[in-house]
Design a protein that fits this description.
Helices cover 53% and strands 17% of the residues. By secondary structure, it is α+β, with helices and mostly antiparallel strands. Helix 3 packs antiparallel against helix 5 and helix 4 crosses helix 5.
């Protein structure tokens, strides 16, 4: 089978951001690249492809921030000013964290349980996924 994991991670273990842990994602922990590779290997998966989409995610967060601001009135009406501001700070801070070298990272990993190594291509992934559906 094929296992695709798309997750926020870091290069090294660091304490979670207190603001995010308290207000946005209570109890969250960020894995390291080493954690992900090690745990999946112990579970019997083989790494097929890994990619860091850090720069793309910084842009994504800025787009989300822009949409949040465009919909401010509706969001404040539904969720309140405090909740709006919490997410404004979260998205702006997240964009900054993904924009600096050594900051937050977005890992995309493709693992397989099969012994053979396929040549990587999106078409191969979709073909293999649809064959196993």
């Amino acid at each position: 089978g094929v296992f695709v994991l798309h997750t926020i991670c870091r290069n090294r273990r660091e304490p979670p951001d207190r603001f995010v842990r308290k207000h946005i994602f209570p109890g969250f922990e960020l894995p390291t690249f080493t954690d992900i590779i090690g745990q999946t290997a112990r579970a019997g998966f083989r790494l097929w492809h890994a990619e860091n989409l850090q720069d793309h995610y910084a842009k994504t967060l800025l787009c989300w921030l822009e949409r949040l601001r465009k919909n401010r009135g509706r969001i404040v009406h539904t969720y309140g000013e405090r909740r709006y501001r919490l997410f404004e700070v979260y998205l702006a801070g997240g964009a900054a964290s993904f924009s600096v070298q050594g900051g937050m990272q977005l890992g995309q990993f493709v693992f397989t349980t099969e012994r053979r190594n396929w040549a990587f291509s999106p078409a191969a992934v979709m073909t293999r996924l649809s064959e196993n559906s």
